[in-house]
Amino acid sequence: MTAIAQLKLAMEGFGDFALGTPFDPPTELKRFAQELAERFGAPESDKPRIGRMEAVLENVLSTTVPVPMGDLRHACYGLAHQIGPRRQQIIASREAFARILAALNEISNEPGRHRRCYLGLLHTYFELDGREAPEPIRKHWLSIREYLQGHLRAVLSADPVPEWAQHLSQHVNLFWDSPCNRYAKDILDGEYAEFDDLRARLGISGTSWLVQEAAISAIRQACEGNDSAFVRHIPQLQKIIQGYPGIQGLALAEVLKRYVRMKDRPENPALLNLSVSLWNNPLFRRNLPNWDLAGPDATSMVASWLKSTLIEDFFELLSSDGTADRRRVRFWQRYTHCIDDMYFALGRRDARRMDADISRLRRMMGDNFLRLEGGTGSNNGFFMVMGERVVVEFGEPGNAVYVFRRDTLPFRLAGTVDGTGRQDWRDLDGAHHLRHADNVHGYGRWEEYFANYLDRKFGIRP
pTM value? Predict the structure, then answer.
C-alpha cells in the first residue's frame, strides 16, 4: 500500500471517529460565547437571574446610598418588579428612581455597561404600561421613554453595534405617543411579519402592552375609514378582538360604536354572537352594566339584532315541524323595537333536547327560558313583552295569538307556564284573541289585520 493510500485510510477513520463523538466546547470558549451573546445578541440573552435581581432591588429600596455600578443593570431590568409583602417598586419611589438616573449618568461614557443598562430600561418600558398608571409611576415611565429615545444615538455610536440596537433605530416610533400606527395597516390586512419580527428582535413578550396597543391601533384605523372600508375589515377585526382577551371589551366597543354610525347597518350575526358571548344578553337589565363600554346606541342596535334572531330561532328551532313559518318571522321582526322583553317556554319534547342549538338558546335566554306544561308535548310558547301588553305566540301552526295586560296574566312568566287552559284564555277579561287566517275581517292577509289591530287597540306600530 502506498503512503498516499495509507494516509487516506487513516484520515477516513479519524473522520468517522470525530463525527461520531459529541463535541463539548472548552470552558473558556463557552464563557467567551456567552459574553458575546450578552453584549451583542438578542435582548433576552442578557436578562439577569431573578434571585440576584430581587436582592439588588431590596438593597436599592432599603438604603439611600448610591447604586453600585455592578447592581445597576439588575435594577434597570427590575424597576417595575414588586418586592416584599408591601409589593414595593423602584419606579414608584421618587428617591430610589432618582438614584437610578444618577447612576446612569455616571456610566454614559462606558458603551458596554451603558448598553446593558439601556436594555434593562427597554425591558421595563415594554413590560410596564405606564400610560394610565398612577403618579409617580406614570411620570417615571415617561422619563424612561424619554431616556431611551434620547440615548439611542449613544448606543449606536460605539462599534460593533448590536443587532437589536440597529433594529430599534429603525423603529423610533416605539417611543411616540402613538407607537403602533405604523403597523396598523399591515395588521388589518392580516400581515404580522414586520411586527412579529420586531418583537422577536427586541425580546418583546406577548404580555407587553405594545402587543395590545398594536391591535387597538389597527381597530382604530379601521374605524376611521369610510363605511365600505370599515365593513371590508370587519372579519379581520373579529379575529383581532378574539385574539387579544386583554382588550376585548375596549376593542369590541370601538367596532360597535363605529358600526352604529354607518348609514346602512344590516344585522351582523358574527358581531352579535361575539357581543353576547362577551357581555351576555342585553335584553336583561342585570346584564346592562356589562354593556357600558358600548354605549346606549350600540347596545340598542345589538339588542334589536338579538330580538330579530330570537324570533327566527323560535319559529325555526322550536316549531312543531322544525320548519320556520316565514310569514310569522317577518311579521314579528318588524316589531323588535317594541319588544321590551321576551321569553321562550318549551314543551315536553324540546325541554329534553340537548343539541347545540337548544343549548345556545338556553345560555342566551337564561332565566327567561321556561317550561310549558299542558297541551301537546311538541308545542312551545313565545312571549313578547311590549309595554303594558304581553303577546303570546305558539310554535304549532294554527294556534291563535293572545294579547294580555301585563298585570293580569293568567300565568306567571317564571319557571313553568301553565298552558292547559289556553282554550279559555280568549274568554278572560281584557284578553285579545287573533288567528293567523287570511281573507277575514275584510283583509286579504292576516298580517294586515294584525298590524291594524295592534295599532288601533294598543298603539303598537311596526
Answer: 0.78
